[in-house]
Specification:
With 220 residues, the protein is α/β, with parallel strands linked by helices. It folds into 2 domains: 39 residues, no CATH class; 162 residues, Rossmann fold (3-Layer(aba) Sandwich). The chain has 8 helices and 8 strands; from the N terminus they run H-E-H-E-H-E-H-E-H-H-E-E-H-E-H-E. It has a 4-stranded parallel β-sheet, with helices on both faces. Helix 3 packs parallel to helix 4. The longest helix is centred in the middle third of the chain and has 26 residues. The model has no long low-confidence stretch (mean pLDDT 94).
Length: 220
């Protein structure tokens, strides 16, 4: 968000937790950017609808949508059914529902850009993460098919698949994550943000379809 706001974008976002949401919004405003947002759960259709109605009022239009709401998950045999179903509703159904709302707003203007944040797990497919892999592999296929679906309407669709990133989704303690970043075994969230800005900054004749971003020492 900071990268986009510093580039002049008016940003609207949402999250499940009020405290963290306000911290992000205030950080953007301290940096001189414009940002609004509300608390909402990406797994709930009513919340997705509410988010976009609020965004309509705050923004007055939609040029780009970045889908980045996701939960970590373990292997299927390690999770209770209610837990893996919630992950699917957030990581997959939430992406589809929110993207549909974005497309509805972009189609009349015959322009716009949808950036889906996936994961290299879609291709690497680590043991012990089958539920997470299922959602990210689905996003990979969704991005490719959606790009073809909306191409003639002038809407761009891009997929970013990061490797390990220093976020709350990583189970390591903070000092271990800091070590991995120093030793080029883990990315910072700002690395992904700069990639989003790069994609959105391309001329309309260009389309960055898919981007993999790995820590330098992540070989698989």
């Amino acid at each position: 968000m900071l990268r986009l706001a510093r580039a002049g974008a008016h940003v609207f976002t949402f999250g499940r937790h009020e405290k963290e949401l306000q911290e992000v919004l205030q950080a953007v405003k301290r940096a001189g950017g414009r940002a609004d947002g509300i608390t909402a759960d990406a797994s709930k259709p009513a919340d997705i609808e509410r988010v976009f109605k609020q965004a309509d009022r705050a923004l007055g239009g939609l040029d780009a949508y970045i889908a980045n709401a996701a939960l970590s998950a373990e292997g299927l045999t390690d999770m209770a059914e209610q837990d893996w179903r919630y992950v699917l509703e957030t990581n997959l159904a939430g992406y589809l529902a929110s993207t549909k709302e974005a497309v509805k707003r972009m189609q009349p203007n015959k322009q716009g850009h949808i950036v889906l944040i996936g994961s290299m797990s879609a291709s690497v497919r680590e043991s012990g993460s089958s539920v997470y892999v299922a959602t990210k592999a689905a996003i990979q296929g969704f991005a490719e098919a959606l790009r073809k679906e909306v191409n003639e309407t002038g809407i761009h669709v891009s997929l970013i698949e990061p490797g390990a990133v220093n976020t709350d989704m990583q189970p390591d303690p903070p000092e271990e994550k800091a070590r991995k970043v120093r030793e080029h075994e883990m990315l910072e969230a700002d690395d992904i943000a700069s990639s989003v800005l790069h994609i959105l900054s391309q001329p309309n004749r260009c389309s960055i379809v898919r981007m993999e971003i790995r820590p330098r020492r992540q070989l698989i």
